[in-house]
Amino acid sequence: MDLFFYVSFFLTQACLFEINDNFRSVSFAIKGNLLTVYFVLSRQSNDDEEAIYHEIMSLFDLWLSEFLEANNIEFEYELNQEVIYNHNKDFILSLPKNNDFVASVFQRKESEE
């Protein structure tokens, strides 16, 4: 069973209907038992921060933990999130190279303007 597929799947599902034009990307990294989700937003927004903390992350954690338990998969994880604000269209999120796994589940297409 590919755990990384399910992490990507549940994170993508949790983001549905919450992502708006302020979201530039959503990625995650796993290093050992540390699972960190990175949100890049164009600007600070209390509504978007609330959606991240109270909707996306809570649903993601719930669905992932229930899936792991239902399938008897041993993966004791520590879940963190980081919100990064950057409106520069050329900005690329650079994550440390020593992660066990890194994936992007959403990347907004930037206009050529």
From TrEMBL:
Pfam family, one: MafI2
Domain of life per record: Bacteria
InterPro entries reported in the protein's UniProt record: MafI2-like
Protein name: Uncharacterized protein
Organism: Psychrobacter piechaudii
